Amino acid sequence: EVPLIEHKTKQTWREKIAGLRVAAAQAGRPDLLLANNEYGLGKPSALNNFTRFGKSMVVAEFAMEMYIGGYDIASFWDNGDGCSPSASSCDHSDHMLMDSIAAYRMNPMHFGLELLARATNSTMRAVTTSTSRVHGFAAKDMEQNTIRLYLINKLEQAQPVQIVLPDTQARVDGATIESMVDTDDHWGEIDASGTAACGSNGALCHAVLP
Fold it and tell me: Three-state secondary structure along 49-68?
């Protein structure tokens, strides 16, 4: 799904949030704050055959969708699994922010949430890529006149991609790509080995996303 769908209404999350904005304005409250204070992965049984990392990627994309859609507040609700740290197993420990039986280690979703947090106080801009399966947004720092790109590769292999920046007057904040990537044990890591090549005017960049 690009973008993600809210399956109760069959709308995309972006359409749902935009509709709430219209309803608030019609009710005379255009300044009403909109919050999704309990988003999560739902019942563990809904994500069969997902690895620990795969579940975390769903959370990271969901968080990005809340950001793009324009919620004023969006909070991941499932912080603890409720299992005893001394338990031998917990059937939903990889579904939450923290895994009790792994000494409360944070699941890899925290990598994505921390990367997204860097867009706070920036101005969102649309960004165009050469494939719809790589999507996201740009965040422009108005004071520094820099742009950061936030992209998710929804393909199962490394993907060469062309990226058209939304503002050619802004400079790209470095050429390093920081990626939330899987590992053999599915706890994930941040890989900073990739680089992006941008034209002299900054309008077009080329990168290979893991």
Answer: CCCHHHHHHHHHHHHHHHHH
pTM listed for this prediction? 0.90
> What CA–CA distance (Å, rounded) separates 177 from 193?
7
The rounded distance, in Å, linking the Cα atoms of 177 and 148 is: 10
Residue whose C-alpha is closest to residue 191's, from 134, 146, 153 = 153
Helix or strand or coil: residue 187?
coil
Per the CB < 8 A criterion, the answer to whether 134 and 120 are in contact is: no
Question: How many residues are given for the chain?
Answer: 210
Q: How far apart are the first and last CA of the chain?
A: 19
Instruction: Read off the pLDDT of residues 31-61 as tens digits, 9 standing for 90 and up.
Output: 999 999 888 888 888 888 899 999 999 999 9
Answer for the pair 61, 76: CB distance below 8 angstroms, yes or no: no
